[in-house]
Design goal:
CATH architecture: Orthogonal Bundle
Low-confidence stretches: none
Distance between the termini: 24 Å
Number of domains: 1
Radius of gyration: 13 Å
Oligomer: single chain
CATH superfamily: S15/NS1, RNA-binding
Largest sheet: none
Helix content: over 70%
Structural class: mainly alpha
Length: 88
C-alpha cells in the first residue's frame, strides 16, 4: 500500500490538469508504483501466494487501462512506459 505522500506525488507527476485524480494515466501510474512495491515484497517472501494473486490482478487491470489509453492517446502511453518502466 502506498503512503499518502507517495500517492500524491505520483498523481501530481501524471495528472492531465489540476484536479485530475482518476484518469487512465493516473490510474496506470498508481498501479505501476504498487506493482513495483509488491514485486519487491514477493522477492523476499516467495511463498506469499495471496499477495501474488493480488499482483496478477493489478497487472491485468493495468494492461486493460493501457489498452484503453493506447486507443485514444498513444503518446501518453509511451511517456508513462518510459517513466514507470513497463512494456507496452
Amino acid at each position: 500500500m502506498l503512503k499518502k505522500v507517495a500517492k500524491t506525488k505520483v498523481i501530481k507527476e501524471s495528472q492531465l490538469h489540476q484536479t485530475d485524480t482518476g484518469s487512465a494515466a493516473v490510474q496506470i501510474s498508481l498501479l505501476s508504483k504498487r506493482i513495483k512495491k509488491l514485486s519487491v515484497h514477493l522477492k523476499k517472501n516467495t511463498k506469499d501466494d495471496h499477495s501474488r494473486r493480488g499482483l496478477l490482478k493489478m497487472v491485468a487491470h493495468r494492461k486493460k487501462l493501457i489498452k484503453y489509453l493506447k486507443n485514444s492517446d498513444e503518446e501518453a502511453v509511451k511517456k508513462l512506459a518510459q517513466k514507470f518502466d513497463f512494456k507496452i
